[in-house]
Amino acid sequence: MLWKSVGLTLAVVTSVLTGSAYAQGTDYPTQNVRIIVPFTPGGGTDLTARIVADALGKAWGQSVIVENRPGAASQIGIDYVAKAKPDGYTLLWSSADGISVLPAVKPKMPYKIPDSFEFVSTFSSFPLILGVYSKLPITNMKEFIDYAKANPGKMHYSSSGAGGGGHLQPAYMAKELGLDVKHVPYDSAAPATVAVAGGHAEFTDVAPSTVAPYIKDGTVRAIATSGRNRTILFPDVPTVSELGYPDLTEDFFYGMYAPAGTPADIVAKLRDGVQAVLKSPGMAERLRALGLEPLGLTGEEFKAFAVADLNRWTKIAKAIDFQLSGQ
Amino acid sequence: MDFLQSLLMGFHVAMTPENLMFCLIGATVGTAVGVLPGIGPVTTIAMLIPLTFHMPAIGSLIMLAGIYYGANHAGSTTAIMLNMPGEPSSVVVCLDGYPLAKKGRAGAALAMSAISSFVAGCVAFMIVAALSPQLSHIALAFGPTEYFATIVMALIMASILTDDSLVTTLGMCMIGLLIGAVGTDLTTGDERYAFGIPSLSDGVNFVAVAVGLYAFTEIIEYSGTTAIRQKMSFSFRGLIPSRDDLTRSWKPILRGTALGSAFGIFPGTGPMLSSFVGYSMEKRLAKDPSRFGKGAIEGVVGPEAAANAAAITHFIPMLTLGIPAGAAMAIMLGALQIQGIAPGPGVMTDHPALFWGLIASMWIGNLMLLVLNLPLIGLWVRLLGMPFHVLYPPIIAFSCIGVYSEQNSYFDILFAAGLGLLGILFRILGANPAPLILSVVLEPLLEQNFRRAMIIGNGDVSVFLKNPISLGILLFTAAVMIYFKVKRKSIIDDVVNLDDKAREPA
Fold this sequence. Notes:
heterodimer; A: alpha/beta; D-Maltodextrin-Binding Protein, domain 2; 2 domains; six-stranded mixed beta sheet; five-stranded mixed beta sheet; 12 helices; 43% helix; B: mainly alpha; two-stranded antiparallel sheet; 22 helices; globular
């Protein structure tokens, strides 16, 4: 008993004295690492998390487990990590939704961006594609605006949910362009896209991978992409910036976060791990097949990117006067 | 014929030793998770996703699909044996399956349910194979107005489900709709009835509702009785379905299959709804509806066939429209995407080997399930001989794991426990919880589609009558109601006449 406590004390003292060096290199991780995904399994956030968790687990020889904690537009899972012990064993894998969109439209948030997290690394990004019902006489942005102006109040856009990017982005566009259009919310991107393919709504703003099959079979026509660059899936579709609306530029991102206060060397090891997965052979092609563009921002750069995005959505939420209630 | 050639190619793909093995693994795992109450295919499929990274696309999809329909297939086992549905879609099977088991005919009920699942699987497989391209167009034509009408039809048909009075049934429906309304308002994003509890902000966990109202209620009620519950009798003669069972069953099986195949095509409806409507249809069509709820074999095979047919035709909206019908399907879609296959209208033309291979594997999988399940029946029936104080603790444990794993939320377990107490109240009042469960599931669909239709129609309710498809569905619903009302009267007349005759002196 005595020897045990002496040993323990020694261990604690050594770890305090050697500080960061103690956890460096092979030490972390010494137990299972949990990556919290704040959505149900199957979506883009979950899939990218599982790709990374699988690769990290192999590289480290430790189990890296993806745990889904969905709810309240990803707020529940994100808050869970924000309040977790900052020891590197509970991490967050999130889309931009709960990081930069939700805090912009919800007045009371249980966590703070950027203060609640260490920004480990982004992994990939995707734009929103403005898709219209193909039976409408709309083939480009100008025709889109003309048609909407000629039919005020008669155009509807389907979205993946109220208060998300798929709702705010087109609402902001309508405001900027002076269009009178109506919002029809769906519960995720796939049914919102099918609503346009079936002509039940006139247009939508969704991720490239969701809309690609419908663009291919001709039921939906792509008009513009919100990305900084054109997407490889649709090289002919112009960016909003090219069309003269740089304010509408938006790239959503997936990335890894650790609770604020996680030791810097653990964050560094995580960052290197995610970067290695991102640069592994074939990964870029694999991501592009999912409609994602590799994006490897880390640390301060990542933080600045996320904060700028949050500021953009805050500005948009004010401009269109949209706010969510609730806890 | 082009279709036969495609199908033949599908069987070539599905019959490779590797794919046969994946199919067997899927069917076996599916059976296991289907039997355990609470633990469902969702968690299992999510856990297996990383495994599929290193598997060929077709093999992984065959395996995951096997888990999905295997679980649907096996979910009725505990419903029949213990009055605890293994999967939400087998809630209805409790109504007559459990009374059958109490009569010592659990074996026959299980065998008939396995046979009806197989027949339904075969027919639905043919429908998927022959009609997929056309059917996906139908689903595309369905907008908010059409969905609203379909759900109204389903709710009305299913609400004439139990023996309870109309007031009780409608009351249970209303409670169900209110519970279903908990969560975030789709249009405004406001939270309703969530009381600041984060787990409720996206609505109630449906598995928690089913486990609470069935498994927990059953266990609480048992623990409240001081007398040791009578052991259920079983005989080997009870294992084998009688000729009477078969003659009674073949029509309900075919009707259920047709119904389930049709409902499965539309995203959002699916196995659970099909089994409810299948049950109420059988009860309405029966010569003697009073047998239902007391162990009518038609009340087991009809909904079972409907649920399994729907589980298979449900792959049509998933593969051709990319709309997952439920959580399990959503994860399968993810697995597809990770393999670089975008679900949607292109799947059939761009990946014919995958599409037809999967479809062929479903038929093979159904055959495997039949072979797997029939010999197990003896084992399940023997389980009934186990004292409940040995059987129930592990069931509580598995139920809690299952409920927790849906959203990794402790609140959901407490919520299920609370519903267990509510279930006791319902039993005391003699109200059947089945309509409540269906309403919980359908409320979001009903409300969301109604509101979407209202937005698109500028708030004019007449959109439902102006739209030809929704008008047709609503007229059909009205016709069915009138028909059954007349029929019901004639049944009552018969009974009255019989009574009169009986009173006459001989």
